[in-house]
## 1
Amino acid sequence: MLNTLTGISHRTLLEDINSPADIRGLAIPELVDLAQEIRDLIIRTVSRTGGHLAPSLGVVELTIALHYVFDTPQDKLIWDVGHQSYTHKILTGRRDQFATLRQYKGISGFPKIKESRYDVFETGHSSTSISAALGMALARDIKKETHRAIAVIGDGSMTAGLAFEALNNAGHLDRDLIVILNDNEMSISPNVGALSSFLSRKLSGKTMRRVKAHIEERLGQLSNVGENILNILRKSEESFKSFFTPGMLFEALKFDYIGPIQGHELEDLIETFEGVRDNIHGPVLIHVLTKKGKGYLPAEKNPGLYHGVGPFDIASGKPQSSNGSISYTEVFGSTMVQMAMSDHRIAAISAAMITGTGLNSFAQQFPERFFDVGIAEQHAVTFAAGLASQGLRPVVAIYSSFFQRALDQIIHDVCIPKLPVTLAIDRAGVVGDDGPTHHGVFDISFLRFIPNLVVMAPKDEEELQHMLYTAVTLGGPAAVRYPRGPGERVELATTLKKLEIGRGEVLVEGDDILLLPVGNRVYPALHAADGLRKVGISAAVINPRFIKPLDDELISTWARRCGRVITIEDNARQGGFGSAVLELLGSRRLAFVRTCLLAHPDEFVEHGPQAVLWKNSRLDTPSIISAAIDLMQQKD
Ligand SMILES: Cc1ncc(C[n+]2csc(CCOP(=O)(O)OP(=O)(O)O)c2C)c(N)n1
Ligand SMILES: CC(=O)[C@@H](O)[C@H](O)COP(=O)(O)O
Ligand SMILES: [Mg+2]
C-alpha cells in the first residue's frame, strides 16, 4: 500500500490475510496493527457504499480474537443480526470483494451461506443466533462431532423474547454452547428496558432499596455470618451493587457466566476465549464490553446516527446531501404529532426503531404516550392491544419485514377482538441495499387473509396522512403500508380527512386496459398511462387505496369496460393484491377479463438499489408499458 505522505509503498498485514488461518500466527502487537488496518478499510469502504458502520467498528478486536482462538469454519460462528460482520467478511476471504459491499451483485451486508463457508447461518433479523447455535450444538452431539457452536449477540438483540426462549432451552439441554454477549449499551438508539439496566448494574433506587431491605431482613435473622455480610453490604452502595452481577441472571438460567471483559483488549479477549475453549463445558456466556463506533470519532460520539449510514465524508463525518425530498417516514412522524395534539387517546409504540420509524418528535413531545419496547415486535402488538382495550388508540410503527414476527399477535390479540390498533407498516416493498431479509414484500399477502382488518396503501405522502387519520379514527384494526424513501413531492394536507372505507379512486379514464397499481406503484402507472396514450392505447388508472376491503364495484365495472387488467404491486405475487383482484373477477363471473399480475416473483429479491429491483421485477414505468402492449396483443 502507498503511503501518500512519504510516497513509500509498504505491504500491509491485511494484504496477506486470506483466511483466519493467516492471523493465527501473528503476535499480539501485529494483531493490534491489523485491527487498525481493518478499521481503516471499513471506514473507507462504508463512506462510499453506506452500511452498518458503528456496529462493525465495535467488534473488530472481538472478531479477530474469535477467529484467532476458534477453529472456524469447523467451529460455527453465528452473528446475530449480522450487521456487525464486516471484519468477519474481511478476514474470511472477502477482503478484495469488500469494495462491493451492499452494491448490486456485490457482497451482502449480512452473512450469506452462498458467499462463504464461514457464513454458517444467515441473519438480518435479530435474536436468532442462540437458537441457531443451540440447534447446531445438538446436531453436533447427535452426529458425534466435536466442533463448537458460538453465538455472538448484542445487548439490544438480547432483549427479544426469542433470545430468552433459546437461553431457557439451552440451560435445560446443558450442551457445550458459547454465547458472546456484545454489550455496547446500545440498540440502534440507547438500549432500553430492565435487562439493559441489569447488565450495566444501573439498578434503580427502588430495586436497590427493596432488595437491600429483603437481604438485611433475611441475613439479620442469621447469626455471625449474616452480620458480617451485612456490614460489608452496608459500607457503600457500590459494594452492595457489586454483590449483584449481570451474571446472576444467566447463572439462574444454568449458564456459566464470564465477564464482563474489555472488548477492545485483544490479549484479554484471546486469553478468555482460550480458557473457555479448553476448560469449560456446558452452556457459557461471555460478557464482552465494547464501544459502538470504536475508532471513528463521529461514530463514537453519535453511534445511533452511524448505526446504518449512507455514503459520508470521512473527514467531517457529514452524510452526502440528500435531494431534499421528504420521506414517507417523516410524513408519518409529523402526522402522528399532528393527530396526537388533538386526540389524547393516540399513543405510539416502536420496537427499538425510533428514528427509523420517524417517531423522535412524537417521543419528545408526548413522552407519556410513547413506548420503545425494545426489539420485541410480538410484545409491541399485544401491548398495543392492551392499550386499545382500555380506550387508547395505539399506533404500532414497525418495518414490514419485522412485522412478520408478530403475525399471531395481529390475528389473535388485535383482529379477533376487533381492537382499534393501527399498524403503521414502514419499509413496505423492496428496501434496497439491505436485501432479502429486510424487503417488505410479504405484508399484503400475510394481512389480506385476516378478517376484521382494513389494509391501506397510499399513492403519495399526502394520502398517507389521510390514511393514518382514517386508521386511528376507525374504531377497529387497521394497517397502512408505505415504502422506504422519498415521497412524490406533493403538498401536504393541513386538515386531515377520513377516507370512505373500501372506496378507490379513478385517476384516469380509459377504454382499452385498466391499470390497478397499489401504493408506490400508482405514479409509475400514471406515467405508463401517458406513455401508452402516445402509442394509441387508452389506459384507465384506478388507485384502489384499500387492499382490503377492495372496492369490488369500482374494479369490476372498469374491468368489464376495459376487458384487460394489469395489477401492479411492490409485494410478492403469491397471495398479493393481484390475487385479490383475480378472486374478485372470478366471483363476479368476469373470468373472461384478460389479466396480467405484475409483482415480485416467487423468489427472494436480492439487494440493490430500489429502482433496479423494481425494474427487475417489471414494476417500473417501461415494464408496465410493455406488459400493457403485450396484453393488448394477446389473442386467445
Ligand atoms: C426482529 C428485528 N427487529 C429490528 C431490527 C432492527 N435492528 C437492527 S440492529 C438493531 C439493534 C441491535 O442492537 P444490538 O444487538 O445491541 O447490536 P449493536 O447494533 O448494538 O451492535 C435493530 C433494532 C432487526 N434487525 N430485527
Ligand atoms: C440491521 C437492521 O436491521 C437495521 O439497521 C436496518 O438496516 C435499518 O434499515 P433502514 O436503513 O431502512 O432504517
Ligand atoms: Mg448493542
## 2
Amino acid sequence: MTSAVETEILLADNQQLRSELQDLLEQAHINQSIIERHQAFDLQLISASEFRELIETMLVAMPGTFNLECVTLSLLDQDYAIQRILRDLQIGLLEFRNLLFLPARIGLPASEHPEQPYLGEYQAATHAPLFPHYLPASVAILPLTRQNRLLGYLSLGSAHAERFTPQMATDFIRRLATVVAICLENVINNERLKHIGLTDPLTGVNNRRYIEQRLYEEVARGQRERSSLSCLFIDIDHFKRVNDQYGHQSGDDVLREVALRIKRELRLSDALGRFGGEEFVVLLTHATLEDAARIAERIRAGICNSSITIEGAEGGLLITASIGAAALTPPDRTRSAEDLKQTLLKQADQALYQAKESGRNRVMLAIPGSEALTPQQA
Ligand SMILES: Nc1nc2c(ncn2[C@@H]2O[C@H](COP(=O)(O)OP(=O)(O)OP(=O)(O)O)[C@@H](O)[C@H]2O)c(=O)[nH]1
C-alpha cells in the first residue's frame, strides 16, 4: 500500500471519528440541556406548597417546558377525599380540564406492568380515559405511586409518533414520576392538615378560626371591589333543654342537623361556621342587608319547618333558632379590615341578642353604621 493511499484511509478514519465525536458531543449537550430543564422543573414542582399551584405547574407549565401537546393528571380518589379538598379550596373541576378523577386504575394490556411507565404509541382501548380532550400520537404514562399505593397517572401526550417509543430510556421519566408523586402526596397532606385545623369536628362545617380568617379576607376584598357582604349569627333556641331532656348525644345530633339545614340555603361562595356551642355564623358574600334578611328568613324557616329525629323524642323534635344579621354595604375604605370585621361581628351578635330578647324564633337586622336594630317580619 502506498503511503498516499494509507494517508487517504487515515484521513477518512479521522474524519469518521471526528464526526462520531461531534455526534457524542451534541448528544451530551442535549442530555445536559434535558438535565437542566428537568432540574428546573423539579424545583418548580417541589416549591409548590399548595394544591392549586402544583396542579398549575403540571398542567399549565409542563406542556410548554417539555414541548408537549397535552399533559393530564388522573387521580384515583375512591373515598372522594381529594375532591372534597378541591371543593373546600373552591377549585372547580372545570378550571383544570386536564385534572381527571378515575373510578379505578386503568386496565393495562398484559404486556404493560402497572407500576412501570409506558412509553409508546397511543392505544385508545387503554389510554382513552387519560386523554379525554386530545388524541395524541405517542404517550408516556407515568404511574404515580407512594408506598406501594397508586395515586394516579401523569400522562404526557405528543402529536409526534417518534416522541415516545418503547426503546427510549426511562430514567428521566421515572425520576419525574417519583418527584410528582412525592409533591402530590405532600400538598394533599398539607391541605388535609389545614382542613382539619379549620373544621369543626362535630358538624363538619368550618370552625371559628376559619370564619374569622375568611371574614377578614372578604372584608378586605369588599373594600377593594366596593362590594357588600353580610354576616348572620344563628343561635338555637333553648338548646340547653334539649341536652337536659334528651342527653348530649341527642344535642349533638340536633347540632349536626341544624348545620345541614343552614347549609342547604347557602351558595357555594358563602361560608358557614360553628362559632362555639349552639351558635353558628354565616358569611354571605356580595349580599346587602336586604339579601341577608331574605336568606336569614329562609334559614329560620328551614330550621323550624320540620321536626328533627332524635332518640327518645317520639315524632321528632321541633327546633327553632334566632338570627341576627348585619351588613357592610360596602365596607368603608377608610377603616381597617380588622376593625370593620369586629364591628360586623358585634352588630350581628347584638342583633341576635335582640332577637332572643324579643321572643326568639325570629330574625333581627342591624342598621349599617348604627347600633339601632330593626325587627324582621318572621
Ligand atoms: N350537645 C351539645 N351541647 C352543647 C355543645 N356546646 C354547647 N352545648 C350546650 O349548649 C347549651 C347552651 O345553653 P344556653 O347558652 O343556656 O342557651 P339556650 O339554652 O340555647 O338558650 P337561648 O340561647 O337563650 O335560647 C348548654 O347546655 C351547653 O352545654 C355541644 O358541642 N354539644
